[in-house]
Amino acid sequence: MALGLTTPKTGQEQLIPARRRVDWLLLGVAATSALFFLLVHGHLIDDTYITLSYARNLAFHGNWGLLADSTSNTATSPLNVLSLAALTFVLRDAVLAAGVLYVAGQVLLVQALRRVGAVAGLPRWFPVLAIAALTVNPLLVSSIGMEVELGAAGLCWLLVFSVERRPFAFGLVAGALTLVRVDLLLFAGVIFLIRRRFWVDGLRSVQGAALVAVPWFAFSWVVLGAAVPDTLVIKTLQGARQAWGKWEFGNGVGLYWQYLPGQTVLAFLCVGLAALAGSRWLVLVLRGNAACRKILPFAALAMAGAGHALAYVSLKVPPYHWYYGPGIVAATLFVCAVVAGSALRIERAAGTAAVVALIGASVVGYAGAGLPRDFAPFTSNYTTSAQYAEIGREVGRLAAGRTVASADEIGVLAYTCDCAIIDVFSDRGRMPGAIDELEARAGRLSRGLLRVNFAFFDYTVRPRKLDLALRRVQGAPPPDSLGSWTISAPMYGTARLYLVPAS
User: Fold this and answer.
1) What does the domain layout of the chain look like in residue ranges?
2) Which residue of 96, 161, 381, 500 shows the fewest CB atoms closer than 10 Å?
3) Phi/psi at 122 (nearest 5 deg)?
């Protein structure tokens, strides 16, 4: 098993002057991804706009917060925010910055797939098949603008530096992945341990990871009051309070199946295929099949994806669809690697046809609702982002500088209203109560970790006074409303959103 090989250049490639080379794969992926973002940017989900608000406020006001005039720490992915903020500062538009970052992520992803595929002896069309399967997956389409794309690119570069035996570069990417999402460190650990003679130069990997990750976490711990973003507390409490009823990550696929059966099948079919392919792959590896042993890095990625999912099951957090993203990315890449790496021509042809059919079905499923779509294929929002933008502008006019309590969803409203939309995501003064509640529910070890995490938290910050409130009502309208809007969504039906005086 030669996982430490590099991909040599052929003599013919070396004779071609660098200035005459055109990388058509990267160019095609960039162009296709840019056009695809133009198609989907109208239905970026509400949580994406939380990230965009952070990026815009950092770029234009130098403030780390959901609101321009106050600090908060509810951005789950620091690296995504920092990258978007840098692009927003230059481009002056956060949505455009999200598009540029998406295209860059796609290019980085396919380049990594090409390099690790070459080491594994996979055919040259493997990265095309894999990037196409990832691009049109309904759940991943619905996560554009979130950190899933950066995470996917980072995971593939982990594989590259693992098979190329570049421990320090591996560590740098592992550190960056930790800033994309802390839980992605699990993937880095599994891929690190599965590498042959992983302990050789292992300290170099640790040094690289620390060089990237420690400065940010130290800054966040001391300056922002918590090393890990406050969303850890918020989302864990949502699970403990059963904010989604009986639904949690472990059974959340059933919720999406109820409301979005076709999209759910298209999104999660790759996980089932990965389980089947994994069983066959393991049997062949135990029999000494050389072709299967070469794709061990992709198998490690799939195993890490399964472990990541089990960790989320144990946390019992709500089934936000993008939480399933890393597992779907890992499963899809493993399936494509198994198909492309099959030594039997008939198996390779049949597997490729199955993946291509899934890609085609996903394209048809996306376009079947009409173009441009109002909703992302997966959504748990109360209405479209376009309508929230209209409501946000009207709320800003009606509020006239007064604070407004959110009705559970805050992203697009905070981005468009030019006013203070208040909830635990935007108002740090509401965090002490949440921290105390989670500590009361936690065991001794978890309670100790929470206290260390919030050692520098400023508990003297008081909640902002509320002047107005948004209320989502499906029954009789509340009295004294200043404005109202009809909203509807696939999972929640139709309701009215009212702006009323805060009680």
Assistant:
1) 23-367, 385-501
2) 96
3) -80, 155
